[in-house]
Here is the input.
Amino acid sequence: MKGILGFRQRRRMRRKLSLLSIVSLILLMLMGGKAKAQDARAVLQAAVKSMGTDSLKCITYSGTGGYVGIVGQNYAPGDDWPKVELANFSRTINFDGRAMREEQVRRQGNYPQRGGGGIPLQGEQRQINLVSGNYAWNLQGANVNPQPAAAQTRQLEIWLDPHGFLKGAIAAKDLVSFERYEGGPARDGGFGEKRKILAYTMGKFRIQGSIDDRDEVVRVQTFVPTPLLGDTVEEKTYGAYKQFGGVKFPTNFHHHTNWDHEERPQGYFGVRDGGHNSFGITIANVQPNVCGEAITVPEAVQKAAIPPVRVESQRLADGVFYLTGGSHHSVAVGFSDFVTVVEAPLDEARSLAVIAEVKRLFPDKRIKYVVSTHHHFDHSGGLRTYVHEGAIPVAHRDIVPYYYYAVMDLAPRTLEPDRLSLYPPDEFQETFVLEAVQNDKYTISDGTRIMDLHLVEGNPHAVGMLMVHLPKERILVEADLFNPPAPNASYPATPSRAATSLYNNVQRLKLQVDQIAPIHGRLVPWGEFAKFASSGKSN
Here is the structure.
C-alpha cells in the first residue's frame, strides 16, 4: 500500500512538474515574442527618427532623365524588359489619405526599338495615374478613365515608397525584425553589407525592407501576382539619401520586377529569363509635406467596376470562329475529332470563358492544341489553363524552353492561385508535352483541314513570332504586328515596322489571304491592310 501511495505521489509530482514546465515554456515564448517585438520596434523607431518619417504627412518629389522598363514585353525571354526614356516624372503621396498622383512623360529616346508595349513610341506620351483608397483612374486632359483593376497595385506602391514602408510598419500588427548580410560589395571592402530587416504583411502582400547602418531604408521588396509566372518579385532599391527640410529622402531609384539574373544569365534550369529592370530615375526635387491639390474621386470612378469576362463568337468559315468580347481575342478551329485554339491571352479567367465557349461550339471535341503566337505576358497569361485542360501548347522553338520553365512550374501560387497550381494533373511533369515549331513552319491537320504556322521573320516585336494561316479558308491570324484602327478611324500616315514585316512575310511565303483576324481589334480585308502596309516607308 505504501508503495502504491509513493507511486501515486510521484505521478502527481511529475504531472505538476510537467504542468510547470509547460507554463514556463509558454511564458518564455511570450517573453521571447515580446522581446522580438520590442527589438523590431526599436529598429523601426531608429529608422523613423533618422529619416524624419514621423513629421511627414505627405510628400511631392520629381526627377528627369530616367527610364521605364515595360514589364512582360521583352523581345526575347532572355532580354531585359524593353526600355523607354522617362523625360519627366513626378509623384505626390498623401500617406494619411492613402492617395497618390503620379505623372510620367515618356519618349523612345535612344533605347532599342524592339519589343512590345507600344515600342517605338511616337513623340512624347504623357500619363497621369491616380489612386485614392480603393479607387484608381487615369486622366487624359479633362477625361477621366476609371481603372478599377489597378487600384490594388497602385495602393501597394504607396507602401513600397521608403517612408510609406516605415508608416506601414508602424501600423503593422505582425512586425518582425532580424539581421543578415545582403547585397554586393560593401563599403568596407567585404562582400555583403550587414542590414537590419523589418517585415510585415499588408493584406495578402508580404513586405520586407532592408535598413543599413545609417538607419536608411535601402531596399523594399514584396511579391505581386502575374498569371504566367505566379508570385513575382517586386523590388525597390533606394540610395544617395539627402536632407530635404528635415526629412531624408533617396535621390536614386532603381526598381526590379522579376528576379535580377544579370549575374546568373541562364536563370533557372538553364533557361534564360532576363526581364527585371523596370524603373530608374534620379530624384532632383523633394518637397516634404507639400500635398498638392486634394484628390477627389470622380463619380464615374466610384461607380466603375471590373467588367465581367465576356466572349462573343463570330463564324468566319465552317468550323472557324473568332472569339472576341474583350481587348484580346482568340480563334477556334474545329478538326475532325479535336479543336485548336489560337492564342491564350490575359489570364485564367479569360481562358476559362473561352474554353467554355469552345465547348459550346464543339460539344463533342476536345481542345487538343493551343497555339501561342509569342511569349508576351498579355498574350500567354492564360496558357496554363489550357495545359490544365490537357491541351498541348504549340510555340516556336525559340520560346519553348521558356514555356517549359514558366508553364511547368508547380510551385504554390500564394497570391492568385490558378488551377494548375491548385490541382495539378496526374504525373504532370512526366507527361507534359509542348510542341515546337522547329523549321519555321508547323502544320496541324486531320487530313482535310490544314492549319499552317509560320515564323514572321525580321519582325521587331518578339522573337519566335508566329502567324497562323488557314489556306483553304484564306484566313490569316496575327497578334500585335497589325492592330487595325476602329472602323471609321483613319490609318497612321506610315505603317509600323511590325506591320511591314507581316506584309513582307505573307508576300515571301506567297500565302493566299482574303481576311485578317487580328488578336486585337476587328476583322480586316487583306486588300485594306495591303494598301496600308505597302503605302510607304515604315516608322
